[in-house]
From TrEMBL:
Protein name (record): Peptide ABC transporter ATPase
Keywords on record: ATP-binding, Nucleotide-binding, Transport
GO biological process: peptide transport
InterPro entries per UniProt: AAA+_ATPase, ABC_transporter-like_ATP-bd, ABC_transporter-like_CS, Oligopep_ABC_C, P-loop_NTPase
Length: 320
């Protein structure tokens, strides 16, 4: 098993109280699996992914266990995580294109990073050049400054850098949303290629855009207001979703590249609840066309079919 998460709670400490951004999540990601993570803006996707590598204030660890390759991952221990970052868990951040130091040439940047992790550019040179070839970057890029590269090229440089040490888990956070459609496809294909070649064991691919996931993910987890509402194979989530929220999300698939925040879900009045004081029971109930009294109680996440998990009373009680 590449990643295993049990009862994870990650909050933001604010003057008004705790924002319950990730509220009791449990799931597993197998070796070789690309898991898509989708849901409307503000549902906790970035919080989950950031907490697995860079948990710092105002974000706070509240409870839960994380294991990677069957070894505990001390996400609550900022310093203790140093030996796991890049080596075991790596991230292509949301604004990867701006993540490169503008005053350093790409080659120097890679060399510094490798030295910080106990290896060197010369040891890794063959591999670096090989990977540049895979992402269709010329070797000459090593001698360039970030400002000399296009957005898509910078994105690919960051992809190579974050996976050079063959991490077990790669977190990819909205890495395609700022790109044009053909670059989006190329970047998504490269993630699959990296997984196929064993550069990364597993991937959590965060996006607003389920249509991107349909092309690359093996499984999809749908989050709503800090909770997991449904998780299954990609085929099942797209073709046979069971949770009312997933159904609405799938039926209102936006055009590629348009964020849900710019194109609110059609047919679902209202907004997700505030995570400072989330409602009791099902957090989707105020917008759910199927809500009934039972939804005042929190629905458990139930495996309704093998590897198909849903948190909805209507689904659980469908045969009553
Ligand atoms: N620094 C912060 N302080 C307080 N609350 C925060 C902070 N960052 C995020 N939040 C809150 O945590 C919740 C989850 O946010 P998060 O960014 O994880 O959602 P997301 O699903 O990744 O959204 P997006 O797709 O827009 O990035 C939201 O309610 C958000 O307002």
């Amino acid at each position: 098993m590449s990643l295993e998460i049990e009862n994870l709670r990650i909050y933001y400490q604010t003057l008004r109280g705790d924002v319950k951004a990730v509220d009791n999540l449990s799931f597993k990601v197998e070796n070789g699996e690309i898991m898509g993570l989708a849901g409307e803006s503000g549902c906790g996707k970035s919080t989950l992914s950031n907490s697995l590598i860079l948990l710092k204030p105002p974000m706070k660890y509240v409870s839960g266990n994380v294991t990677i390759d069957d070894e505990p991952l001390p996400i609550h221990d900022f310093k203790g995580m140093n030996k796991f970052r890049y080596k075991k868990v790596s991230i292509i951040p949301q604004y990867a294109m701006n993540a490169l130091n503008p005053t350093q040439k790409i080659g120097k940047l890679i060399s510094d990073l490798l030295e910080n992790h106990g290896t060197s550019f010369s040891t890794m040179e063959k591999e670096i050049k090989e990977r540049f070839k895979i992402v269709e970057l010329k070797e000459a890029v090593l001698d360039m400054y970030p400002m000399e590269l296009s957005g898509g090229m910078k994105q690919r440089v960051v992809m190579v850098i974050s996976t050079l040490l063959n991490p077990s888990l790669l977190l990819a956070d909205e890495i395609t949303s700022a790109l044009d459609v053909s670059t989006q496809k190329a970047v998504s294909r490269m993630i699959v290629e990296f997984r196929n070649r064993g550069f990364v064991k597993s991937v959590i691919f965060v996006t607003h855009d389920v249509s991107v996931l349909y092309q690359i993910a093996d499984s999809i987890m749908i989050m709503y207001a800090g909770k997991q509402v449904e998780r299954a194979s990609t085929e099942t989530i797209v073709k046979k979703p069971l949770h009312p929220y997933t159904k609405l999300l799938i039926s209102s698939l936006p055009e590629v590249g348009i964020k849900y925040s710019e194109n609110p879900l059609k047919g679902i009045p209202g907004n997700p609840p505030e995570l400072l004081t989330p409602p009791n029971g099902c957090r989707f109930r105020s917008r759910c066309p199927l809500a009934y009294e039972k939804c005042m109680e929190e629905p458990p996440l139930v495996e309704v079919m093998p590897n198909h998990y849903v948190a909805c009373w209507k689904v659980e009680n469908a045969n009553d």
